């Protein structure tokens, strides 16, 4: 197999912004021949917008007519397990937007479907494949900050994305909005501190929005040798994704907006060297920011979706493991299930 034949299911924002451009950019590995959406008009318009040959409103029809060997699922999270099962039953490899599913029961159904058909599956855990997070993982592996002991995340989402949209599908997920963005918290935590043994959650609805139980979540996740806290806030007017990682020998800050990763050693904080450290941090930030800007201008900056999709295409063709394994995706769902199970009743939320 030298070139795959793919179709995308779901023509919403994530498909148009990330999946379709990433697939189209790898014409050397894949031919994108069709899109599918239950909204026929949306599927048709998307096919026209991206110069894709055909559009469908039924996944079975698309797979059988087009002879696909790869299906990319970009639909609401609660539909993932069923659609993975359909694609696998036709012998198609499956790429699925996070989360893999909304429950461990559905994950087990997915595993059964994939194993029985002998196809590959990969879930998009995009943020750990962003340049800044990859740089952080390399630095941690090289021992630059020693063993990781804690991580603290701040994730903010513009209220116009979910909170202001009464009929958005995220509000029908178990736990509400957190079940859509919580997978990011889960897989980044697993990547930094390993298995999560215990989860505690505080949540509140500061805006009084009636169609969502909470608009702020404060999550504490404990592992064997480290812990991670995450604040996920949905009523702001800006995006932010920042992680502070504390190691035995030093610390780092991962900024997934500026795509920078800054580190410093414990000894750097002696009073006599603070000025030197400050200049070093500024210099490092300036170099990384400038490099990111140059890559953006010349079209060479690859974000998480680009990396995962390219690596998965190559893994299918070469017969190598996918960039995100089924177990890694299932582990992330397990953490989100724990988060949702620890949510307070809206009547008892912190005010």
- The CATH class of the largest domain turns out to be Alpha Beta
Fold-level CATH name of the largest domain = Dihydrodipicolinate Reductase, domain 2
Number of strands: 13
- Estimated share of beta-strand residues: 15-25%
Pick out the low-confidence regions.
none
Radius of gyration: 21 Å
The CATH homologous superfamily name of the largest domain equals Dihydrodipicolinate Reductase, domain 2
Q: CA-to-CA gap between the ends?
A: 57 Å
Counted up, domains total 2
Q: Return the structural class.
A: alpha/beta
Biggest sheet descriptor: 7 strands, mixed
Q: Helix-strand pattern, N to C? A: EHEHEHEHEHEHEHEEEEEEHHH
What spatial form do the alpha-carbon principal axes imply? globular
By DSSP (H or I, 4+ residues per run), the number of helices equals 10
Spatial sequence of strands, sheet with the most strands: 8-9-10-7-11-12-13
Mean pLDDT: 92
State the CATH architecture of the largest domain. 2-Layer Sandwich
């Amino acid at each position: 197999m030298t070139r795959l034949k793919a179709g995308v299911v779901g023509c919403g924002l994530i498909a148009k912004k990330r999946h379709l451009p990433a697939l189209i950019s790898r014409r050397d590995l894949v031919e994108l021949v069709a899109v599918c959406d239950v909204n026929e008009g949306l599927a048709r318009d998307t096919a026209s917008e991206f110069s894709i040959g055909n559009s469908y409103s039924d996944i079975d029809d698309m797979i059988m007519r087009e002879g696909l060997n790869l299906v990319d699922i970009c639909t609401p999270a609660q539909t993932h397990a069923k659609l993975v099962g359909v694609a696998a039953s036709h012998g198609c490899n499956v790429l699925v937007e996070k989360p893999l599913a909304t429950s461990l029961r559905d994950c087990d159904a997915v595993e059964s479907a994939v194993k029985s058909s002998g196809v590959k599956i990969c879930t998009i855990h995009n943020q750990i494949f962003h340049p800044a997070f990859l740089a952080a993982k390399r630095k941690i592996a090289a021992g630059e900050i020693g063993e990781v002991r804690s991580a603290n995340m701040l994730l903010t989402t513009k209220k116009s994305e979910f909170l202001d949209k009464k009929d958005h599908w995220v509000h029908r997920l178990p736990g509400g909005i957190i079940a859509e963005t919580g997978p990011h918290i889960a897989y980044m935590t697993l990547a930094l501190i390993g298995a999560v043994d215990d989860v505690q959650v505080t949540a509140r609805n500061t805006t009084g929005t009636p169609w969502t139980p909470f608009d702020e979540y404060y999550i504490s996740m404990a592992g064997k040798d480290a812990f991670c806290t995450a604040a996920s806030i949905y009523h702001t007017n800006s995006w932010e994704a920042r992680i502070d990682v504390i190691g035995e020998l030093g610390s780092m800050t991962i900024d997934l907006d500026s795509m920078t990763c800054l580190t410093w050693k414990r000894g750097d904080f002696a009073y006599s060297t603070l000025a030197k450290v400050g200049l070093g941090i500024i210099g490092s930030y300036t170099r990384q920011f400038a490099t990111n800007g140059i890559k953006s201008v010349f079209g060479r900056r690859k974000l998480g979706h680009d990396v995962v999709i390219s690596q998965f295409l190559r893994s299918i063709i070469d017969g190598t493991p996918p960039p995100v394994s089924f177990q890694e995706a299932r582990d992330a769902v397990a953490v989100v299930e724990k988060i949702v199970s620890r949510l307070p009743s809206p009547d008892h939320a912190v005010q």
